Amino acid sequence: MKRFARRPDVQTFAREDEAAAHGIRTPSLRLRAYRLLRKILLGFILISIVNAAFSYFFYTPKIYRIDRENRELVIRYRVLQDRIRTAQHIVDELRACDNNVYRSLFGTDTLSIEGVWHPYPDTKYAALADDDYAPLLVGTWKQLDALARTLYRESVSLDELQSLAHNKERLSTAVPAIWPINRKALHGDHIGAFTMRRLHPVLGYVRPHRGIDLGCDRGTPVFATGDATVEIADAHGYNGGYGHMVLLDHGFGYKTRYAHLSQIHVKPGQKVLRGQLIAETGNTGLSQGPHLHYEVIIKGNPVNPINYFNRDMTPEEYDSLIKQLRETKYE
Asked: How many whole angstroms separate alpha carbon 56 and alpha carbon 62?
């Protein structure tokens, strides 16, 4: 069925004729909608400005609630910091017992903190730097990180002590605990000190001396200071300045090195017992006189061998030995 468009009524034509007669154009529906939308947007902007100004100069219930929640968070962070400090104090006491009691019972060195104790870089906390509470937040996180590192270190240490407890009898024979040469063969004042800074008498510059030098005659018998397996027994070459050298692996993280030898009486892979003859002293490698260079190594880190000589010495003998330590000109 055909539809016909609606015809304007007479009043509509009359209004349009009147507007045309006075030079007035009737706005379109789109223009009227745009004007209405503009009024709504202007009203919304005005209300927002008034609300922001009111909120800035006057506290609203919402601002009161936010301010109360912020104060509660600050209090909680302060309480958390107190708890962290308490936990840190307890862990520090445990660490002191670990170093001074437990490890002394097993005759082992303190645990190395290399790679564990270094603080995190400040970039880790950069995201909190612009916060109004940055000092509180960053300080709390640093305390937590330090506590976490300490707990990790102590867990590693206690795991090691647990292993030592299960193997205490074998450990007692493996720890290097005697002199590597007969003390009567020692030239009284010829003991080179363990030091991280020493002017090398041959090379002429400062570098670490990772063991001690025991001055003695060439051919002096050298003994294993603990039960071990021979890892290196090299009677040839320079060996980085060590010359003829023996390296023993005692297990439990312990190794000992005997350098500048003239004769070697063991082979790699051989089992040796504490006090067994393994070599004879000499003057090989980077050396200026007959002596034994002796090292004790714990988990890859050199430690002062003198600390392992006190098992068969009186306190007076030990103090006398410490006084004899000095820089030598052997190597």
From this structure: 12
Dihedral (CA of 46, 51, 52, 54) sign: positive
pLDDT one-digit tens code per residue, 96-144: 877 776 776 666 666 665 555 566 666 777 777 777 778 888 888 888 8
- Token match 């991280």: residue? 196
Helix boundaries (H) for the chain: 10-21, 29-57, 61-97, 103-106, 134-166, 168-174, 315-324
Map out the domains of the chain with their CATH numbers. Answer: 61-166 (no CATH), 183-326 (2.70.70.10)
Write the single-letter amino acid at 195: T
Look at residues 207, 296, 213, 203 and name the one whose alpha carbon lies nearest to residue 256. 296
Cα-flanking dihedrals φ and ψ of residue 108, to 5°? -120, 155
Q: Please say if the pLDDT value at position 313 is more than 70.
A: no
Alpha-carbon distance 58 to 299, whole Å?
66
